Amino acid sequence: MARTIGPLHSDDASGTFAKALTFAKWKGRSYVRQRVDPANPKSAKQVGVRAMMRFLAQAWATIGSTPQGTWLEGATAKAISAFNQFVSLNLARWQNNEPPSQSYPAAEASTPAAITSAPLTGHEGYATAVVTPAANADIWGVVVYRETAEITSPTWANCVAVIPRDDVTAFTFTDSPLAAGTYHYRFAAINTDGIIGTVLADASVVVT
Fold first, then answer.
1. How confident is the model at residue 4 (pLDDT cuts 50, 70, 90)?
2. CA-based, 20 to 30 A from 113: which of 36, 68, 97, 195?
3. Cis omega (within 30 of 0) on the bond before 67?
4. What is the C-alpha separation between 146 and 85, in angstroms, rounded?
């Protein structure tokens, strides 16, 4: 239910009223809108955006003050934080099928990192892949694409995870939960300056 502070039409209100109206505040301004239930809160595109948002949120604290400072000028002009600028512009790159960058603008000057192998194993309700980066890979993260058919065009819209990495050791990726069926995967490494490596060839696995 909606919670009010003072008379409803003169002060603050927050929450949902009668499953019809939602009261909230944005940048210090109170507003009311019709309550809307998402038609498909787990669509492929939503999953792809959330995967990158999660990666960026985790990465911000680890990239260091120098890269963080490159986002400040544009953020100040918009009256937002450097972190919000970092997330916003990198999500725009992502939805243009470009990987994120630690600094602004993206230099896109490094040698693309690579994933050498990612053998898959199917299990009851989940799948695993042992992901091995190239020995000389200076990677920032690993992008995981998944579909129920062959992945001919890996994009942000069929990405299911972006995994932070700071070394070249092999690691196990677990995709769970999954319904029984056949799943196709592709993997790619991303560098710190907005470069993505060659996407590993399509491979499939059966989940029971």
1. very low
2. 68
3. no
4. 28
